[in-house]
Design brief:
Elements: E1 8-18, H1 27-37, E2 44-46, E3 52-56, H2 63-83, E4 86-89, H3 106-115, H4 117-123, E5 128-134, H5 154-177, H6 192-197, E6 201-204, E7 207-210, H7 217-220, H8 229-249, H9 256-259, E8 271-274, E9 278-285, H10 289-309, E10 312-315, H11 318-321, E11 325-327, E12 330-333, H12 336-348, H13 354-368, H14 373-378, H15 380-388, H16 392-402, H17 412-438
Helix pairs in contact: 2-17, 3-4, 5-10, 5-12, 5-13
């Protein structure tokens, strides 16, 4: 993806459900059906479970064109699936009880043994939205697929400022796309996916929930700000070394293929420098296309401004009370400990947290300073969310409450209806978003 002009790309993941809203392990069957009918033949991939389908987008310079092509492709998948009684679920966790079937892959087996089979199996029953933004040319070596050693380089400065900005935006972006208030019939956070997957722990009100990387934040926690390529390169090498060391300590054989993997492959957290030459943001729930477009577009607008104006992202005490405040070519970010606190607030409370809502508003205000009219339309779902203080998770919780269930376990039939309603809304949102992009 790196080149003279910046490009964007992304991956989305969906659950397959039947017409009753129940999770079904039908991805292989659906992919074979799509291939046979020859309506969709690219950017499709099976995921860790037989009930999860990844649909990607061919990278390009124009976000509008990339998204339009993706949505046209997605609509074909939806139509083909519905013809044979299948639907796609655009939420990050299947809300009710389910029995997903895991695929047998060496990489999954290595992670399962390393992190614990039971914890791994539960924590990765999640779908996420991953967006890619091409790195400035020269940051990643083409042959070595590692971060290069650059001393004097504008590309290096642009990249590091974009990287630190992305770390700071994470709590807000989690909220903009949150869609997983229930998992296995249980509610313990507005964003169950983040709680289950990251380095978090919840030990209150009788609940004990531990994230997959709670004991291993080096691999799955939100990374700290970075100021040199050497720090990033050394941290990547450390992750790989520690991962292999811990496998050996557990008496596990380390396959040659794993030893030869790029250092960059051992980061599973929200912000990752990718060996293909992108900065990959992996921090949000799956959601409806309009919400994912708005969130990724917000980041893209900021990245363009950082490059164009040579903005310097400065973690500062000023950022504690005035996050994303701009003075000249300096933008003040909060200290990292504050970002981590906001990450937790976003995960547990979302827009119910006034502090998090204000932080999200400050981020949007920073981007809107230079936004055009068409930009405002594409960011409309986020603007509406900031006005109403309601995310998709809040909408789901409200629906369940109207059915008479507020706390404790929720019957499967209620959550199956949530899934079915969400799949119906998906198709409508695809159509609406395509119209928006055509204007």
């Amino acid at each position: 993806m790196p080149g003279k002009y910046p490009t964007v790309g992304f991956e989305t993941e969906f659950f397959t459900i039947n017409e009753r809203g129940n999770l079904v392990n039908k991805v292989d069957w659906l992919m074979a059906l799509l291939k046979t009918k020859r309506r969709v033949h690219s950017h499709l991939r099976e995921e860790v479970f037989h009930s999860m389908l990844e649909i990607g987008a061919h990278p390009g310079r124009s976000m509008a064109k990339v998204w339009s092509r993706y949505l046209e492709n997605l609509q074909k998948v939806i139509d083909t699936a519905e013809e044979d009684g299948l639907r796609l679920l655009p939420l990050s966790t299947y809300p009710g009880k389910s029995r997903p079937k895991m695929r047998k892959r060496a990489w999954y087996a290595a992670q399962s043994k390393f992190l614990g089979k039971q914890l791994f199996s539960r924590a990765i029953r999640i779908c996420a939205f991953h967006s890619h933004y091409s790195l400035p040319k020269g940051v990643i070596g083409k042959n070595i697929r590692q971060i290069r050693r650059l001393r004097y380089s504008r590309a290096k400065d642009i990249f590091l400022n974009q990287y630190n900005f992305l770390v700071a935006t994470d709590p807000a972006c989690i909220t903009f796309c949150q869609s997983s208030p229930y998992t296995e019939g249980e509610h313990f956070a507005k964003d169950s996916r983040t709680m289950l997957y990251r380095d978090m722990a919840l030990e209150e009100k009788g609940k004990q929930v531990y994230g997959l990387f709670e004991q291993h934040p080096l691999f799955g926690g939100l990374p700290n700000y970075e100021y040199t390529l050497a720090d990033l390169r050394n941290m990547s090498a450390k992750r790989k070394r520690k991962f292999l060391e811990m496998m050996r300590a557990k008496g596990l054989e380390v396959p040659a293929k794993l030893r030869n993997r790029s250092d960059l492959r051992f980061m599973f957290g929200a912000v990752r420098v990718n060996r293909v030459g992108t900065i990959e943001y992996r921090g949000t729930d799956m959601n409806y296309p309009s919400y994912m477009l708005a969130t990724s577009y917000l980041i893209k607008l900021a990245f363009d401004e950082i490059k164009k104006q040579n903005l310097q992202m400065l973690p500062s005490d000023i950022g504690l009370t005035e996050p994303f405040k701009r003075e000249g070519d300096t933008v003040y970010l909060p200290p990292f400990y504050q970002v981590k606190r906001l990450e937790r607030l976003s995960t547990l409370r979302g827009m119910m947290s006034k502090r998090l809502a204000n932080y999200s508003s400050a981020l949007v205000s920073f981007v809107l300073r230079t936004a055009k009219r068409k930009d405002m339309k594409r960011l409309a779902p986020i603007s509406h969310m900031l006005q109403t203080k309601k995310t998709i998770s809040d909408e789901i919780l409200e629906y369940v409450k109207k059915q008479g269930y507020e706390t404790g376990k929720v019957p499967n039939e209620v959550l199956a209806q949530v899934s079915l309603d969400s799949s119906v809304r998906l198709s409508k949102d695809v159509e609406k978003t395509l119209k928006l992009l055509s204007r």
